[in-house]
């Protein structure tokens, strides 16, 4: 193994790109797999959990890692595309070791130093195996806003890493998930053991949990929501986009669904109920009821200010809709839509109404999924308005809404066919 530091802290590996010998990125690091034997013998590092295309997680043995340098990991290019499945003798560093309560044995202090694991370090032993050699620990905070002292100890000097810990917290795992995209964080949460997932969900704030829920498979969404108390579940649903919340509530039993809708803010609940009133896989059921809506006297500067909202998806920010009052769906009559590209070419003081695309036909809420797909494809659109019989804007269907409904159930877990990566045969799992 060349160009590799003698000691690597695992939390810094998560999210790093993995490259093949040709310099092409083939995956990202998501976790580290180790085999723990005893508290005194250093655990052997078996390999990395890597995420490849399609958010699929595979196992990359350490024997396939050729280098770990600044900001990237290099492999031989031989990857087994079989989905990673954790064995009973294996431990995930990020998923299971972080936030464990441990004690550093210290003869100078009665009982030693107790704290939470926030990182571990691995090193290469003389036999070329990688082992976990150090444990980074943070003591509990002392006083108002004062962080607890941190320590880095030898593995053999730490106790508590091999014992089961039902009440394991999630502080440092949450910190590791914080910088991930919601889809990546959802994939990691999906792979956690049930008790660990429960702790992580409990520690997440409502907005972040809502973002992650939108990216999880339906069965995970339902399981997580049913384990929350009703008040918090309603708060999380309010933070979700209305179309995703409607899909999730539709998967709950009717009694739970009615309870949660009753606890939500009336305006939020009304949007969800309206979406649930449409037949499945129609434009009405797929649409987002909160696109960018402006009045006829709005300027292009106003429109550009609205589409800069970082909470908008790229497809929602691609079009603005000009309507008569009221400007909340269902609006007054839809006058037309303007493309962001057109707006960027016009003077900021110009009225948006002067830049409308008059050729764009709206969709009806009963349009089928195939009709929506054909409409977006025919006119090269990433979004389209949905109107009722009176021409009032009900919402907008975006290409990502369409894909969510067109892809087969469980598409996140579907396996790409095993094959060759950059011309090399697949490699069997080692360790």
Automatic annotation (TrEMBL):
InterPro entries per record: CBS_dom, CBS_dom_sf, Mg_transptr_MgtE_intracell_dom, MgtE_N_sf, MgtE_transporter, PRC_barrel-like_sf, SH3_actinomycetes
Molecular function terms, GO-annotated: magnesium ion transmembrane transporter activity
Q: What GO CC annotations are associated with the protein?
A: membrane
Checking PROSITE patterns in the record gives: CBS
In this chain, the stretch annotated as Disordered covers 410-431
Pfam families attached to this UniProt entry: CBS, MgtE_N, SH3_actinomycetes
In its UniProt entry, what is this protein called?
A: Mg/Co/Ni transporter MgtE (Contains CBS domain)
Q: What species does this protein belong to?
A: Nocardioides exalbidus
């Amino acid at each position: 193994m060349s160009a590799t530091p003698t000691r690597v802290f695992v939390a810094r590996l998560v999210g790093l790109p993995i490259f093949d010998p040709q310099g092409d990125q083939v995956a990202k690091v998501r976790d580290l797999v180790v085999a723990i034997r005893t508290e005194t013998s250093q655990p052997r590092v078996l390999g990395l959990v890597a995420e490849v295309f399609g958010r699929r997680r595979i196992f990359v043995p350490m024997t396939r890692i050729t280098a770990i340098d600044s900001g990237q990991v290099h492999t031989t290019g031989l990857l087994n595309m079989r989905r990673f499945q954790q064995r009973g003798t294996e431990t995930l560093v990020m998923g299971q070791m972080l936030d464990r309560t441990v004690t550093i044995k210290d003869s100078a202090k009665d009982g030693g130093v107790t704290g939470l694991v926030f990182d571990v370090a691995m090193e290469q032993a003389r036999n070329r195996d990688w082992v976990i050699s150090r444990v980074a620990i943070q003591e509990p905070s002392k006083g108002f806003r004062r962080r607890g002292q941190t320590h880095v100890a030898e593995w053999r000097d730490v106790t508590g890493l091999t014992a089961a810990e039902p009440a394991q917290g999630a502080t440092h795992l949450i910190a590791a998930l914080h910088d991930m995209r919601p889809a990546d964080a959802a994939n990691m949460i999906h792979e956690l053991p049930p008790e660990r997932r429960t702790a992580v969900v409990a520690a997440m704030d409502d907005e972040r949990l809502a973002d992650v829920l939108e990216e999880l498979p339906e069965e995970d969404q339902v399981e997580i929501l049913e384990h929350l108390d009703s008040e918090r579940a309603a708060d999380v649903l309010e933070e979700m986009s209305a179309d995703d919340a409607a899909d999730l509530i539709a998967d709950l039993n009717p009694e739970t669904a009615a309870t949660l809708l009753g606890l939500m803010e009336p305006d939020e609940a009304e949007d969800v109920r309206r979406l649930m009133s449409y037949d499945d896989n129609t434009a009405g059921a797929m649409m987002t009821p909160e696109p960018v809506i402006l009045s006829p006297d709005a300027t292009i500067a106003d429109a550009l200010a609205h589409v800069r909202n970082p909470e908008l998806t790229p497809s929602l920010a691609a079009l603005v809709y000009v309507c008569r009052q009221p400007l909340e769906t269902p609006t007054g009559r839809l006058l037309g839509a303007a493309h962001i590209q057109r707006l960027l070419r016009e003077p900021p003081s110009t009225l948006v109404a002067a830049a409308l695309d008059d050729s764009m036909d709206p969709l009806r809420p009963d349009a089928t999924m195939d009709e929506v797909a054909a409409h977006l494809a025919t006119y090269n659109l990433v979004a389209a308005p949905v109107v009722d019989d009176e021409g009032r804007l009900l919402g907008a269907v975006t290409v990502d809404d369409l894909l969510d409904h067109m892809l087969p159930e469980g598409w996140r877990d579907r396996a790409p066919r095993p094959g060759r990566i950059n011309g090399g045969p697949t490699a069997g799992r080692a360790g």
